């Protein structure tokens, strides 16, 4: 089994098609939806984490591409220069996944990489610019 994150963009005409149902049922994908913007009749976006066998992962991606859905792997990572961090907490206010938080005892910034969805909001919020996104 492999685990990957994808940003899936689909056109308005696909907003009514049960794409995730097919990925789960037909390709044995285990899907965790991290973020979604879906409106009937409009373009939609899903940020998902997928766990599947390699061949099932590839077959599922091919299915989405045949459906005219773009599949973008999320290979970025978040980098924080903790030596320069002032532990102000500004980044924690934007972190909806709760990957960044202030330790309640030390009041120092803590980063749980496993929860990070690499949205980049924290990097924009950091007043001293020590949070970067990279590959």
Structure, explained:
By secondary structure, the chain is of the alpha+beta class. The protein folds into 2 domains: 72 residues, ACT domain (Alpha-Beta Plaits); 58 residues, 2-Layer Sandwich (Alpha-Beta Plaits). Helices cover 20% and strands 33% of the residues. It has 3 helices and 8 strands, in the order βαββαββββαβ. The strands form 3 sheets. The protein has a 4-stranded antiparallel sheet with strand order 2-3-1-4. A two-stranded antiparallel sheet has the order 5-8. A two-stranded antiparallel ribbon has the order 6-7. β6 and β7 form a beta hairpin. The longest helix is centred in the middle third of the chain and has 13 residues. The chain starts with a strand and ends with a strand.
Category from helices, strands and their pairing: alpha+beta
User: How many β-strand runs?
Assistant: 8
For the terminal residues, how far apart are their CA atoms? 23 Å
The average pLDDT value, as a whole number, equals 89
- Spatial extent as radius of gyration: 17 Å
The succession of helices and strands, N to C, reads: EHEEHEEEEHE
Question: Main sheet?
Answer: 4 strands, antiparallel
- CATH homologous superfamily placement of the largest domain: ACT domain
CATH architecture field of the largest domain:
2-Layer Sandwich
Instruction: Write down the overall geometry.
Output: elongated
Spatially, the strands of the biggest sheet line up as 2-3-1-4
How many domain regions? 2
SS summary, helix count: 3
The helix content, as a percent range, equals 10-25%
In the CATH scheme, what's the topology name of the largest domain? Alpha-Beta Plaits
Ranges where pLDDT stays below 50 over 5 or more residues in a row are none
CATH class of the largest domain: Alpha Beta
* Strand percentage: 25-35%
